[in-house]
Amino acid sequence: MDAEIDSVAVLGAGSMGHGIAEVAALAGYEVRLRDISEDLVQRGYEQIEWSLDKLSEKSQISDGDAAAALSRIEPVVDLEAAASDADVVVEAVPERMEVKREVYAELESVADDDAVFVSNTSSLSIGELAGVTDRPERFCGMHFFNPPVRMELVEVVAGPDTAAGTLDLVAELATSMGKTPVRVHGDTPGFVVNRVLVPLLNEGAWLVHRGEATVAEVDATARFELALPMGAFELADQVGIDVAVHVLEHLHQQLGDAYEPCPLLVEKVDAGALGKKSGEGFYDYDEGVDVPADAARDDVADVLVAVMAAEVAALVDADVADAAAIDRALELGAGFSDGPAAMADDRGLDALVATLDDRREETDAPRYDVPASLRDRAESGGRFHAAAPS
Ligand code: CAA
To answer: Ligand 1 centre from 34 Cα, in Å?
Structure first.
């Protein structure tokens, strides 16, 4: 536990909020988990119970640790009861600016003046969120990955006025929770992991939408050709298809048409099929997920890696992170066995650029535009990582 932090309030008991509360309680903090109705907060609490049971069933924690963690979590509906004596307030409410604005206004009237506020937002601007509070210097992003109890990375995102001490404190908090904090500077749309991962999901969806591949082929390719822990559609179901669409809408608005959400994703959201949390998304969770290994396709792998390579190049160009940091973030935040830059190097940047050029010509879609730096690197026989000495 961090010496300066005893109690943590988590606002929002949905898929991320309850997971963050669980992680904080396992690390020894007193946690208040808050949602706007008894029903919602109770549902989150029951999911924590389920998860702690699973972890102890699999001997990842002892029965005693599971019971102790649960006893440290108090589910509440009243915001003042949740936040008035919290040292850190983690906001994980729905990704709509007007909802967050209301929550922060109410929070300011009940929270301690010295408390640090962090947002688990995956898409909204940290600067804009900080601006609706009275404490932009004690505000930053603390972005966990789904499921928080299993994923090791936390992106610590600075807003324009965040104090260095706040970033240190939040990074220490993440470390005390057994996570690896990675600092992200500035308001980079999608930060690092989502900037690579969500376009990957979108590309999988476009391939299916255009009739070029099936869901099974895309997911088998991701799992068995690229050695990712989950297929693109399994992952969309895991994070919530609505969450993926929110991130894409934000990227679309901030960065342009290359990030237009695929209609296949939007249709699922409109139909209320949001993924695991609603029982059905691209898979039906009563039936379970079966991804056939023999459906993997090399041409699909090429497209998926090419799209990720373009994102890596754009992140490097914008000075958000270098290739090594991007790979590490994807390994820790999304369980990749090799990061996207290493995968691109393995496939050959020249081949990936050719794939992007061909598809750009064929489809006219801006998501296949090749960043100039990627083309230069490919033409000069370069790689993202220096080649290992032979
Ligand atoms: N708590 C406890 N147990 C859990 C759990 C949880 N929250 N979630 C799943 N499990 C259980 C499952 O029920 C399953 O149990 P059974 O075997 O009894 O059915 C078991 O864990 C599976 O565990 P394994 O270790 O065998 O499975 P795995 O090796 O496939 O690991 C995983 C599961 C860690 C989720 C892995 O698939 C993975 O890393 N997936 C990638 C997830 C990812 O990319 N997350 C980031 C998404 S992006 C994001 O979140 C940010 C955003 O803003 C959108």
So the answer is: 24
pTM: 0.95
Give the Cα separation of 48 and 22 in Å (integer): 6
Give whole-number Cα distances, 174 to 23, 69, 80, 141, 153, in Å.
Answer: 10, 17, 25, 12, 9
Q: What residue type is assigned to position 190 of the chain?
A: G
Tracing tokens 């993924």 back to the chain, one arrives at 275
Q: Which of 15, 122, 125, 202 is catalytic?
A: 122
Q: Tell me whether residue 128 is one of the annotated catalytic residues.
A: no
128-151 pLDDT, tens digit per residue, is: 999 999 999 999 999 999 999 999
Closest of 262, 253, 256 to residue 233, by C-alpha: 262
Residue closest to 131 by CA, chosen among 155, 150, 171, 159: 159
DSSP notation for 77-104: S-HHHHHTT-SEEEE---S-HHHHHHHH
Catalytic hit among 194, 217, 234, 250: 194
CA gap 305, 353 in Å, rounded: 10
- The residue whose C-alpha atom lies closest to atom 34 belonging to ligand 1 is 150
Q: Is 122 near ligand 1, meaning CB less than 6 Å away?
A: yes
Token couple for 379: 């033409």
155 flagged as catalytic: yes
User: HSE-up of 39 (CA within 13 Å, CB side)?
Assistant: 0
Is residue 390 within 8 A of residue 330, CB to CB? The reply is: no
**Distance from CA of residue 123 to its chain's centroid?**
9
